[in-house]
Structures are given as structure tokens and as C-alpha cells.
Specification:
mainly beta; 3-stranded mixed sheet; two-stranded antiparallel ribbon; 5 strands; 24% strand
């Protein structure tokens, strides 16, 4: 299991969709309510609760379309 908020960036794959934060494999003892993040649209998403950032492997962000603040 991954500990939530231990890292602030995660790379996910199509198998992780629909993407939720915290992800199912994370322990939930110190986490927040589950929220679904639309990573499919841009290839990148940020959780409003904990600030974790997610990049979709093979998605738009991998092809240079990440938000300007993250290039």
C-alpha cells in the first residue's frame, strides 16, 4: 500500500481510470474524502484536498500539454 500524501506526484495509467484521490491502494487513515479527478481531459490533474498531482502515462501531459506552470 502507498501512504497518501507521502508523495505529491503520481503517474497513473489507463488501468487506474476513473482516477480518484486517494487512490484505492493508499491507506486511508490520514486522508480526505474520495474525489474523482478528470485526468483524461488534459493528461494532468491536481487534487483540491491534498494537492497531489497526477499525470496520465501516455496522456496529453506526456506529449507536452502539461499546464504552463508545470513545464
Amino acid at each position: 500500500m502507498q501512504t497518501p500524501n507521502a508523495a505529491n506526484h503520481y503517474t497513473v495509467t489507463a488501468q487506474d481510470l476513473p482516477l480518484s484521490c486517494p487512490m484505492p491502494g493508499m491507506s486511508l487513515w490520514n486522508s480526505h474524502p474520495r474525489v474523482y479527478l478528470p485526468v483524461e481531459k488534459t493528461g494532468w490533474a491536481k487534487c483540491g484536498y491534498c494537492g497531489a498531482e497526477y499525470t496520465l502515462a501516455g496522456g496529453a501531459a506526456d506529449q507536452g500539454a502539461a499546464p504552463a506552470a508545470h513545464r
